[in-house]
Amino acid sequence: MTDRKLRILDPEKLDVDGYVVARGLLEPAADLGDLIAEYEALVATLVDEKHADQGATFQTQIASLMTQTDGQCAQALDISLPQQDVTEATSVHLGPAVFGLLRNTRLLDAVETVIGPEILSDPVQHSRFKLPEDRLTDGTSSALTAATNWHQDLGVLLPEADDSLIISVWMPLVPVDEDNGCLLFIPGSHKRGLLRHESSRVNTGLPAAAVPGQQVAVPMMPGDVLFFHSTTIHSSLPNRSDRLRWSIDLRYSPTGQPTGRPQFPGFVARSRQAPESELHDHAAWVQSWHDARAALAAAPDAQFNRW
Description:
Low-confidence stretches: 1-7
Order of helices and strands: HHEHHHHHEEEEEEEEEEH
Radius of gyration: 18 Å
């Protein structure tokens, strides 16, 4: 453990508050540049395929795609399969830059300070493009594109993960603030354990009466990384700006512990004890997701959530 890691990630604050921001953990150009370029190329391809407005900026292209496809393009931009209606043709983005981010050395160094050196990349991961609220329609509004209500990440996993030490990792690809929908947290709420969630058309979350205490907004810049426990209560503000809010969220747990999403494939991202078990092959990772997609297409009634 280096002094730099200790300065960037404060384990005591994570334990007390249930969340902590590691400011400047990643270098925007070196660590995120390939991912941004990969998505710019993907969006350009989708714009061409859907005959959407070419637009002058990445943001206008995303907005045009959302409108043109009535929100369906969100799945083509996501880095996980959906939980229902999966077919052999269901889109999922599995580019090499996404795989590289999952295995990023700076990121794993920080994760190691929390859960130890045997690290599984959990298959609970998303790329979220949240449009300004005034651009959303019934079709384009979803958990990936609209404000997120109060919830705990453990609440959307199966009970098999109740004793797993799952750490959530959230990072913005653009500046996020209270205007364009940064995250909100209830400090110390992880100590209450898992609370019962309710489902709606857009989100699964906690009833308002179950959300106690002080709400803290967490503005962030690209390169900042947010770590929080699976029972920490959090939400996101609506995007009331004229800017796109783009973020990536990942999960990690100690190798061998259930992920709560057994239908999707995790992989060993780091192992000090058995480095040969680490997955370095991007093609193998892609194939694991394609195999999961085929299995889900053949068994459409798989259970993903406890409630």
